[in-house]
């Protein structure tokens, strides 16, 4: 039944791949959530009409315990295309900047880049509503930006400067924003935290869902399965998102997992596989998942994606896979290149518009790099704050100055 409906949809989509005016659209394009702190291009400001295209997604979804899945026929407005392309380009440049600053030894500690996985963030963000929440792991810079942290807030955080989004004290893995719970370095840890956020939404009846993103490596952890079970029992408004980039730290997924169809691993929980290199597929899958989470309970979404770099900056990333494999993905499945080609083929954006966005994104990131370099480090007395919720000046163990000046045993050590 579903297959027949799908075939009909596909045929319709082929017929529909022409320019329409927005009044002719049967299914309105995705509701956009206004974002904070991001200078996103605006159709009106740029003097554009609200044209849109309807098209068929090239790759079908795979479903687990679902009779019907996400829409494969999708619509995109010109203003949305401008916005998505700008976000894709900026997130990539942001990571290039992070890599550069790391190589200059201005970034201390770990640094995990998101390069290659940008469509996952842009597609999910496009479907999120203002009251939805998100939590992810350590590959967090692009997500912080997508959730409203300005580029300088990300780069200043990486370089340990005071205008970083965590005051320069969190670093690469600890970035947060409104409705954005980070940023956690413990593999899989974000999944139970995300279940807690979803529980809060259910308890407060605020109508939000929580998306918890984790990797294919993290998917083998016990705590993830515990959360599947509890989320199902409690019918939490939760979307488990497995970003399957095919590798754990240095291990191909087949070597670590007996079942690499991660979307099927929730047992009774429904699941979807979507092409994580295609912004519009990710958006469509997320729209479906949000509705499902609100009306029926938790759902698992696997996004097939790829990371170009090593696991972190200290991993060249070529000892467990070949350079040819990476080059092939870059040539054939790059999310930005793919979206750019789609926009040009469908005449949604012109080459000039694309080049202009590239230029604007470059200026934004170069400005952020300059600002991060110029920024000061946090003042020394900031060592006392943000450890516990109170101010324990003079009572914290491990803060050298106080150990010289105070007798902690008298004050009551924390
Ligand atoms: C509990 C725990 N175990 C091990 C590690 C070390 N570690 C960091 S990332 C990683 C692999 C995770 O792979 P995956 O979940 O696929 O995420 P990806 O890096 O591919 O985005 C491991 C084993 C850790 N940080 N935390
Ligand atoms: Mg992985």
From TrEMBL:
Q: Where is this region: Disordered?
A: 26-46
- Please name the GO terms that the record assigns under molecular function: pyruvate dehydrogenase (acetyl-transferring) activity
Task: Please give the catalytic activity noted in the UniProt record.
Answer: N(6)-[(R)-lipoyl]-L-lysyl-[protein] + pyruvate + H(+) = N(6)-[(R)-S(8)-acetyldihydrolipoyl]-L-lysyl-[protein] + CO2
Among NCBIfam families, the record links this protein to: PDH_E1_alph_y (TIGR03182)
Q: What does the function comment of this entry state?
A: The pyruvate dehydrogenase complex catalyzes the overall conversion of pyruvate to acetyl-CoA and CO(2).
Question: Which residue numbers delimit the Dehydrogenase E1 component domain?
Answer: 87-379
Give the encoding gene's name: LOC6902941
Q: List its EC numbers.
A: 1.2.4.1
Entry-linked SUPFAM superfamilies: Thiamin diphosphate-binding fold (THDP-binding)
Q: Which UniProt keywords apply?
A: Oxidoreductase, Pyruvate, Thiamine pyrophosphate, Transit peptide
The UniProt entry, under Pfam families, shows: E1_dh
Q: Which cofactor does it need?
A: thiamine diphosphate
Which organism does this record belong to? Drosophila pseudoobscura pseudoobscura
Q: What's the protein here called?
A: Pyruvate dehydrogenase E1 component subunit alpha
Q: How would you classify this enzyme at the top EC level? A: oxidoreductase
What processes does the entry annotate via GO biological process terms?
Answer: pyruvate decarboxylation to acetyl-CoA
């Amino acid at each position: 039944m579903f297959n027949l409906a799908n075939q009909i949809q596909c045929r319709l989509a082929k017929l529909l791949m022409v320019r329409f005016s927005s009044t002719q659209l049967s299914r309105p394009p995705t509701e956009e959530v206004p974002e904070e702190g991001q200078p996103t291009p605006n159709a009106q400001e740029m003097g554009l009409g609200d044209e849109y295209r309807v098209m068929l997604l090239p790759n079908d979804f795979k479903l687990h315990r679902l009779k019907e899945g996400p829409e494969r026929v999708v619509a995109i407005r010109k203003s949305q295309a401008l916005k998505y392309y700008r976000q894709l380009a900026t997130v990539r440049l942001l990571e290039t900047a992070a890599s550069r600053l790391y190589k200059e030894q201005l970034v201390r500690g770990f640094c995990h880049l998101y390069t290659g996985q940008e469509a996952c963030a842009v597609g999910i963000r496009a479907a999120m509503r203002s009251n939805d929440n998100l939590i992810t792991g350590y590959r967090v810079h692009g997500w912080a930006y997508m959730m409203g942290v300005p580029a300088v807030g990300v780069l200043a955080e990486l370089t340990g400067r005071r205008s970083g989004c965590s005051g320069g004290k969190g670093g690469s893995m600890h970035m947060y924003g409104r409705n954005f719970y980070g940023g956690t370095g413990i593999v899989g840890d974000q999944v139970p935290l995300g279940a807690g956020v979803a529980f809060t939404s259910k308890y407060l009846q605020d109508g939000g869902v929580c998306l918890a993103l984790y990797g294919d490596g993290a998917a083998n952890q016990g705590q993830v399965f515990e959360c599947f079970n509890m989320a199902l029992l409690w019918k939490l408004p939760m979307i488990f998102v497995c970003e399957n980039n095919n590798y754990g730290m240095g291990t191909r997924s087949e070597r670590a997992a007996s079942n690499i169809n991660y979307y099927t691993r929730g047992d009774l929980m429904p699941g979807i596989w979507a092409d994580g290199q295609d912004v519009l597929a990710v958006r469509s899958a997320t729209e479906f998942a949000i509705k499902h989470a609100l009306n029926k309970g938790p759902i698992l979404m696997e996004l097939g994606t790829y990371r170009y770099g090593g696991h972190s900056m200290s991993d060249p990333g070529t000892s467990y896979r070949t350079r040819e494999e990476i080059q092939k993905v870059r040539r054939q499945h790059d999310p930005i290149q793919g979206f750019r080609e789609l926009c040009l083929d469908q005449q949604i954006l012109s080459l000039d518009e694309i080049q202009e966005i590239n230029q604007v994104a470059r200026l934004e990131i170069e400005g952020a790099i300059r600002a991060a370099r110029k920024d000061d480090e946090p003042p020394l007395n900031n060592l006392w704050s943000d450890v516990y919720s109170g101010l324990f000046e003079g009572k914290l163990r491990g803060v050298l100055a106080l150990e010289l000046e105070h007798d902690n045993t008298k004050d009551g050590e924390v």
